[in-house]
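Posting here for the record, re: NAP.
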Amino acid sequence: MKAITFSKHGGSEVLEYSEVDRPSPGVGEVLLKIHAVAINHGPDIETRRRGFGMGAIAMPHIGGVDPAGEIVELGAEVTEFALGDRVAVYPVIACGVCEFCSDEASENYCSNSVLYGVQTDGGRAEFAVAPASQLVRLPTTVSYEAAAALGVAYTTTWHGLMELGKLTADDTFLVVGAGGGCGVAAVQLAKIYGATVIAITGSEWKQEKVRELGADAVFSYRDKDWPDKVREFTGGRGVTIAFDNAGTETLPSSISCLARGGRLFCSGGTTGFEVSLDLRQLYRNLISLLFYVQGGKADMEKLVALVADGSLNPVIDRIYPLENAADADNHLDAQGQFGRVVLAVAGDVPAAGEYI
Ligand SMILES: NC(=O)c1ccc[n+]([C@@H]2O[C@H](COP(=O)([O-])OP(=O)(O)OC[C@H]3O[C@@H](n4cnc5c(N)ncnc54)[C@H](OP(=O)(O)O)[C@@H]3O)[C@@H](O)[C@H]2O)c1
Ligand SMILES: [Zn+2]
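Prediction output follows.
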């Protein structure tokens, strides 16, 4: 079968479109014919560049954390799925025995979890094996491309916004980096649940796109006065909830936009991981900072249901054929995207680079 592999860390030039052996499903696993897999900065690009801080990975490595496809072979002891089932892979493989798993916390709390496609081979291939326990069923109304878009960016954003942030229609919600995969998801989900959304994005064309998604106010982070504009839009009060995965360059400003009693959720640092905070400003204003990683399988299942009933249409920026994975990585790396970038492995593939 064909797969995108790399045998050493480096730029996108280390990626090869290789012929490799088709894997066989072991006990409790299935073999998937992959249709689509999204690209994610950390698990795909950082892993390829220098590793993702999860230990050394076996080389050659096949990335791809959130593939979707159909089951073409069942391993021993798989009884809950059948050949031909349409599924997506939920990528956090929990240990099932740690104190968090024993307490039935969602998978992203597991202290020994393994990330599919980083610590195992993943879905940047024509076929991939996955544990049956990681599969999320896809109704026929959910395309493989939409499902692949959900696994990391939308699931992580859902967990922060709904499970931790507990967003309601009464909230005024600030989204920083609104043009990225998580940012677009945050704008869309908050509008579905009726909140007022203030979006911060870089370029003018992305500002227009975010407005089309329903954001109530849109400013650019290239304008250094953006926190003043956010406060002005809220009549001086500030926002009740904020999402900032942009990190060093924006997090202190995002916190400064919070109303008294406000909360901010964060699971990334695109521009860096270190910030300096004024603790007195935080405690005197009763600010809650909610840090977390990924989302749970139940979060992803809720998102699949929203797509299936037509409430949510994940924004897919471009679909590249599998063999053009290096171009797709570079496009994401240059922040040329609005929403998710997806590799299509089987079926109809739009011309490389075509905007859909
Ligand atoms: N911990 C987890 O479980 C988890 C899961 C998913 C993602 N993440 C992290 O979350 C972050 C976003 O992920 P993603 O998939 O959405 O990545 P992405 O699609 O590459 O989006 C990143 C966005 O960051 C914004 N950005 C870049 N420079 C900025 C600046 N100076 N000020 C403000 N915003 C800036 C850009 O927003 P505009 O396009 O609006 O200009 C860009 O689109 C990444 O750091 C990723 O590693 C973490
Ligand atoms: Zn565990």
